[in-house]
């Protein structure tokens, strides 16, 4: 085990079955003939954040619970094949899985199997403390075992980030994550008033920056110093084929900038570039932008060479 990790990723491992459908929403029919077909691969939110960070050159360790099953074997192979350090804890209910319906325009609808989780699921405290002790930052997925790890990460003095995904701003389940992280990502899709929710997170929690992603509209930043600030989207370099993993890629790019000491707007630009790249990768693929490509696109987008990432 490396003596120092840039980022410890907690939770978010699993397997997705990708189903390509002719349109979303999918009208009812007895059956559909679909191409390119149905394929199962490892990769859920924590897996893709770890992949994105590793591709950007950050030393990353992923900790999560998975099952002793064929799906768990896919998760193990994912980390092994991409050179990501992975510590697994047995998950009695079996490896988490989902079905993603993907339309021709790249939009997706995810169906998560919630039967794998148990109230008793926990990440061992000693293990969390050990890994936190050799890490600079922790990115915490909003899975049940991870909420119990938050106090241990605070105790270790780590900065923390989390992605609330499609939080509606009201569901209390998300609040420990929202108020316990220094960097908070959230999709604006289900927020009736994104700015109000972002300000509440700043006021009630420990967040220094809140980022609301808005897909093709870009993202919005809010810090204690003011805002919100709109960061425009970045046009993908290729055809948009799938939005799976775009939010995870955005988080990876943003954290790359933050750990390099960049200002929030530059971090959001990095996130936008990484997210745009992810939209050009088929749902069955596992590819993330690397540091050279990201920094090159940032220079092309802004015309300035700042942000070499030397602090990461």
From TrEMBL:
It holds the Pfam family PfkB. Residues 186-284 form the Carbohydrate kinase PfkB domain. It comes from the Bacteria. PROSITE patterns: PFKB_KINASES_2 (PS00584). Signal peptide: none annotated. Keywords: Kinase, Transferase. GO terms for molecular function: kinase activity. This is Adenosine kinase. It comes from Streptomyces lavendulocolor. The lineage of its organism: Bacteria, Bacillati, Actinomycetota, Actinomycetes, Kitasatosporales.
């Amino acid at each position: 085990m490396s003596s120092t990790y840039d980022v410890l990723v907690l939770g978010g491992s699993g397997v997705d079955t990708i189903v390509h459908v002719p349109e979303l929403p999918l009208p009812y029919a007895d059956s559909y003939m679909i191409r390119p077909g149905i394929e199962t691969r490892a990769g859920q939110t924590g897996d893709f954040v770890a992949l994105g960070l590793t591709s950007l050159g950050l030393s990353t360790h992923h900790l999560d619970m998975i099952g002793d099953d064929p799906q768990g074997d896919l998760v193990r192979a994912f980390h092994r094949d991409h050179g990501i350090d992975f510590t697994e804890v047995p998950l009695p209910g079996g490896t988490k899985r989902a079905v993603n319906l993907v339309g021709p325009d790249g939009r997706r609808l995810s169906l998560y199997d919630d039967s794998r989780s148990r109230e008793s699921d926990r990440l061992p405290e000693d293990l969390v403390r050990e890994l936190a002790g050799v890490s600079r930052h922790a990115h915490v997925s909003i899975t049940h075992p991870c909420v119990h790890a938050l106090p241990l990460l605070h105790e270790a003095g780590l900065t923390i980030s989390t992605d609330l995904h499609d939080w509606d701003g009201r569901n209390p389940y998300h609040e420990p994550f929202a108020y316990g992280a220094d960097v908070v990502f959230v999709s604006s899709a289900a927020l009736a008033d994104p700015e109000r929710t972002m300000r509440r997170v700043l006021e009630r929690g420990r967040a220094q920056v809140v980022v609301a992603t808005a897909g093709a509209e870009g993202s919005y930043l809010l810090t204690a110093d003011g805002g919100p600030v709109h960061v425009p989207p970045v046009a993908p370099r290729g055809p948009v084929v799938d939005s799976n993993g775009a939010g995870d890629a955005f988080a990876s790019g943003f954290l790359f900038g933050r750990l390099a000491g960049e200002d929030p707007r530059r971090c959001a630009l990095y996130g936008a570039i990484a997210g745009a790249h992810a939209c050009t990768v088929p749902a069955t693929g596992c590819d993330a932008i690397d540091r050279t490509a990201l920094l090159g696109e940032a220079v092309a987008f802004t015309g300035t060479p700042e942000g070499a990432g030397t602090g990461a």
